[in-house]
Amino acid sequence: MAKKETCCPHCQKRLRVSERAISVVCPYCHQRVAVEDHIISDYCSVSLVESTGSLRIASNGNLHARVRVNYLEIQGQLHGNVIAQGKVTIEPGGFLEGNVTTPSLQVKAGAKLKGFCRIEPASPNQNPNE
Hints:
Elements: E1 3-7, E2 14-18, E3 23-25, E4 32-34, E5 38-40, E6 43-50, E7 54-57, E8 62-69, E9 71-74, E10 77-79, E11 82-84, E12 87-90, E13 95-97, E14 100-102, E15 104-107, E16 112-114, E17 117-119
Parallel strand pairs: 5-7, 6-8, 7-9, 8-10, 8-11, 9-12, 10-13, 11-14, 12-15, 13-16, 14-17
Antiparallel strand pairs: 1-2, 3-4
């Protein structure tokens, strides 16, 4: 069975999980760790989207939530603060309203960003409300 490496967002320990896993329990801190990738293609309003996987908001997607993921791609709309461990990309026609903390941000021509950006390695203990 194929494995992938991820990092527990709670205790920062390295984990090897199945590529087919949706979530696992960290053997070190015993917290649930979501590892699946998400695609938002409709309206969705939740308090928090958190995963060590990626999040893609399709062109017809509209998400209202705080986001804490590994990678983020926005083709539609996102209203909420973002903490990403990897790259955040806002595609042409995409809209992000919220503050962003990420080591890499790409805002393509025709994309809109309304918020503050902090380009630095994301602290795992950082609160998405900031």
